[in-house]
Amino acid sequence: MTLLGAQPSTIKDVARAAGVSVATVSRALGAPGMVHDATRSRVLEAASSLGYRPNRAARSLITGRTGNLGVIVPDLGNPYFHSVLKGAQARARAADHAVFVADSEEQAGEEASLLEAMARQVDGLLLCSSRLTARALARAPIDRLVLFGRRVHGVPSVVPDSADGMRQAVTHLHVLGHRRIAYLAGPRRSWSDQQRRKGLEAACRELGIVQSVLGPVSPTFAGGVEAADPVLASGATAVIAYNDLVAVGVAHHLAARGVRVPERLSLVGFDDIPVASMTTPPLTTVAVPTEAAGRIAIELLLDRLGRGDTAGSCFELPTSLVVRQSTGPPPTRSQPSPEPRPNPRSS
Amino acid sequence: MTLLGAQPSTIKDVARAAGVSVATVSRALGAPGMVHDATRSRVLEAASSLGYRPNRAARSLITGRTGNLGVIVPDLGNPYFHSVLKGAQARARAADHAVFVADSEEQAGEEASLLEAMARQVDGLLLCSSRLTARALARAPIDRLVLFGRRVHGVPSVVPDSADGMRQAVTHLHVLGHRRIAYLAGPRRSWSDQQRRKGLEAACRELGIVQSVLGPVSPTFAGGVEAADPVLASGATAVIAYNDLVAVGVAHHLAARGVRVPERLSLVGFDDIPVASMTTPPLTTVAVPTEAAGRIAIELLLDRLGRGDTAGSCFELPTSLVVRQSTGPPPTRSQPSPEPRPNPRSS
DNA sequence: TTGTAAGCGTTATCAT
DNA sequence: ATGATAACGCTTACAA
Lengths: 347, 347
Prior knowledge:
The structure is a homodimer. By secondary structure, the first copy, chain A, is α/β, with parallel strands linked by helices. Chain A has 3 domains: 53 residues, lambda repressor-like DNA-binding domains (434 Repressor (Amino-terminal Domain)), CATH 1.10.260.40; 121 residues, Response regulator (Rossmann fold); 128 residues, Rossmann fold (3-Layer(aba) Sandwich). Chain A contains 12 helices and 12 strands. In chain A, the strands form 2 sheets. The first copy, chain A, has a 6-stranded parallel sheet with strand order 2-1-3-4-5-11, sandwiched between helices. Chain A is elongated, with a radius of gyration of 26 Å. The interface between A and B is large, with 50 and 50 residues. The structure holds a DNA duplex.
């Protein structure tokens, strides 16, 4: 038990207590193979009885390692990143590394400044959905980087296979009978959005589906609310949203107008964040294994710190369609749905 | 611009470039009043042209300060803590401190071990909704602690005024005409739950309202789903849930059974997490200024590091009722609502 | 106002 | 297998 106010004991104290030199203590702890078994157990006992904890600063000063990892996300309030963070944190802690977390507020400038500030305090950095240009990334003040949700030449990365997820979503809708699908696009510069568009086009071409792209909209609940009317006007019988937040926004506005989902319009989201299963009806969505992503990204980072031979590697995560209740067959002509109520937003 | 691969420059390099001793460089940066103006500007120029950044480990070794703060939350996946974290992170960064974050997975044991692990690496620690006993807290391996969401004698803390929030909620329901209210309680050991119960009892006694306490339930969406039927059976015309997650769970199950909110039952949540405004109908809830809480908690912590005279202080945050659409007048006898559909969970 | 030098706690190098 | 000792980069007495 740690006594309050007592000075933390140092390696010297342990050495004295065990009757050996500090070098031996250091070895007993760090390179167990280099000391006699008997000596080591004596040292270990002394250490634990004194409650000895190595001073990280001192260690860092000489090894050049901090034992810290950093994670930068565009928005700590976005549920999509929570489980990435959770996975990252868990994996890092298992490797006895602490995790710094910072929020770039969706701004490239802020991200760059964060990068600068953290570079010296961490052994490696995980950048989630980085807003930085490939150029800026290449001249980052730290080269032990791993990217999540973005692929940039020469930087190891973990990305969800969005294109395949999109293919699954489109196929699901096709099987249900939909022939006119709209995609509610996210930020134009978003790498994920580009992947989703590619997947959409490929799948629609293959299945002979008419697709239209709406947006881009803000990748938020509010963005979805605003897009609901245009979606309805587009004539599509099903809409795939850039992400769950947008889909939930669309569903919310549709409910307020008395438009039934999925009877009148089928709705698919992306990411499978917790709220997707809490709405009425629960949202059909393309799940991304974000917690695993966080774990794997840190794994990659730790690996890179060790041998550093994973420079350009890219780990592609499988995505999977979670079918809930926001998708169904398209409305039939013989069984028309009631007229939508007047738009509550313009009243 | 930072060149890749170049060794980071040290205080020695700066001293050489400026033609002064390392001590002068150190003072120019840390105690501007102790060096000649001309000298200082020469040093500053040299430092910036070399892109000098002090080595935190070396500084820490001598000052005993790390420049880091830690935040421990019970669950990184719980939206309630996200904005606390966000506020904390922002305030810390403004004070040039980095933030470690860790997830105790709702377990006191894990929290204690995290505390142990982080104690030496941070200057201070913010514990959110700590699961530790007052005893364990008192003998923590670090005494620069601030608590959020809990009040413990001798430890500075930031807490929402839940009792008052509860009073506002009860009053709101009373004005609408409700005379039988149920409270869906959270974890028995939760400090917040105890506050809410107190507020409930006081307000109900004052207003002459019949109250009943249901639960405790798990403070999650699933907990709410499970509690929905008992709530309905309780005969109350309005229910206040331990938190928004529970309220949303109740609403979800009620919707599936065809029970209308608020026509048949009024529903109030706690916390005002983002999902509260995304449901249909949007949730009436007691808002807690969590982001401000994070900022203030860090403020308190920084203050404590400086002079250390805020030992037992407690900052009580105002709460405010956000009236949305899940509350309304109680159903009248003359206008009975339709029978609920058979329970979908048992079909 | 400035310089010199002694440490901070650890690991790593070189002896033994 | 073990010990003595020099670094690591910085702050801070103490001297000048």
